[in-house]
Amino acid sequence: MKTSTADGLMKAVAVVAVLFGLLTVFSGGRTLFGGEAARGAAGAIVPFVLWFNFGAGFAYVAGGLATLLGRRWSIWVARGLAISTLLVFAVFGVHVLSGGSHETRTLIAMTLRSGFWVAQALLLPRLFEGGRHA
Prior knowledge:
Layout: H1 3-33, H2 35-42, H3 47-68, H4 74-97, H5 104-130
Helix pairs in contact: 1-2, 1-3, 1-5, 3-4, 4-5
């Protein structure tokens, strides 16, 4: 991959990670700390998923900023987020299969989060190799 292409793509995925993280912290924080009305509007929340996603949102922002700054350790943040999100998703699956209450949007959101961080974990090493950060 040419340097400019790799750098442009790296910047794009970094910005998406930061925005994704800020939205995650905002929506999770609103549900966790916004009172009964906010929790009621969220529907059948799964507390361990909500708390994980809220905390992970801060890591999304940190990983995205590290990527923007060309820090190779952002690869490890992406890998950690990919693995931990997949693990929480698996436990969520057990919860659902055991008859636990949940929202379909949680399933969709966890699929999106898992896919995004697995893609980041696989893509970032190649972008660092192909860009000015090698």
